[in-house]
């Protein structure tokens, strides 16, 4: 049987994640990889999780191991209601929260309930590659807005929205990671955050605020969530526990108006019925017992040291003409090579020299900006950061010359 002929149009349109395909080349044990987006295992609170699991299984094991509701475990959602109010000033009810299997599932659900083929989605340039993957089956058309060291340029966003509406191309969604953006590492300033909301209301367009790294601040002043500034329900917020508890639990939460949550619940019922119940009970206890507040400073100390080390190494070893961002938090920094240097072509040479990165063009819908790359500083050891940057600097110098 020729199975290829039986696949649906959607299945035929699916493409492998370019990053994950490239990462297959980095699996050799002697390659130092700055390519992944992994939290450092040193940041996992193994002892506290074991303590909580032991307590939960002894006290209410059958309930913890049972199916849960699609919306999420009520105890966990109630904890998040309090968490969002006390930590971010976002005042919501239980019915404004959906627990998802990671933020990636939240993106997929939002595509399913909002995007029809040909709809316009506004994204930052560069943008998180996960949204391109999650949305690809629904065939949107992307409109990009350039960024600088202060995040998305909202004056360009305003011009873009005005021109789109004038041409009859009303956008369906604006997607942004305003805090420690992936891949660029930059943070949107307060003035621009307010401007995004003004534009959302003026042009009547929803904003997807993705916030995977907001708790990981190593320097600079804390800024409010877009959701905390949102007074009229234009912002859909996505948070995750993958970076501050454990990625293995696959726990994230979507916060939005009840009507949006209801539609997302219906879409989720056709995918997995419910999110990992055990993880929800563990996360609920982890927050309620105060362990999260105790542990986040430990993660920050670890990652700040690694960020500072990588920046120092780049300062010392990268050649003139190469630029990079200096993130106040998160997990990544963004490197821009001189014009004419193709980071995708250079990748093979880098792997041959036992160092890897993610090519920057993968983060642009049109695959342009080929002279860019993303580096992760949270996962490698300190020694790997030192040696890896030296190796990468050598490859870049050779490529430039």
Task: For this entry, give a set of tags.
Aspartate Aminotransferase, domain 1; 401 residues; globular; four-stranded antiparallel sheet; alpha/beta; 15% strand
Secondary structure blueprint with pairings:
Blueprint (H helix, E strand, L loop, with lengths): L8 H5 L4 H6 L8 E2 L12 H19 L9 H15 L8 E4 L1 H13 L5 E6 L3 H7 L5 E8 L2 E2 L1 H13 L4 E6 L13 H14 L2 E6 L14 H4 L5 E6 L11 E4 L2 H12 L7 H12 L2 H27 L5 E2 L7 E5 L6 H10 L2 E2 L1 E2 L12 E5 L5 H19 L1
Helix pairs in contact: 3-11, 4-11, 5-6, 5-10, 7-8, 12-14
Mind explaining what this structure looks like?
- The model has no long low-confidence stretch (mean pLDDT 95).
- This protein has 14 helices and 14 strands.
- It folds into two domains: 3-45 and 294-400, Aspartate Aminotransferase, domain 1 (Alpha-Beta Complex); 66-291, Type I PLP-dependent aspartate aminotransferase-like (Major domain) (Aspartate Aminotransferase, domain 2, 3-Layer(aba) Sandwich), CATH 3.40.640.
- It is globular and about 60 Å long.
- The strands form three sheets. The chain has an eight-stranded mixed beta sheet, sandwiched between helices.
- The termini are far apart.
- It is an alpha/beta fold.
- The longest helix is centred in the C-terminal third of the chain and has 27 residues, at 291-317.
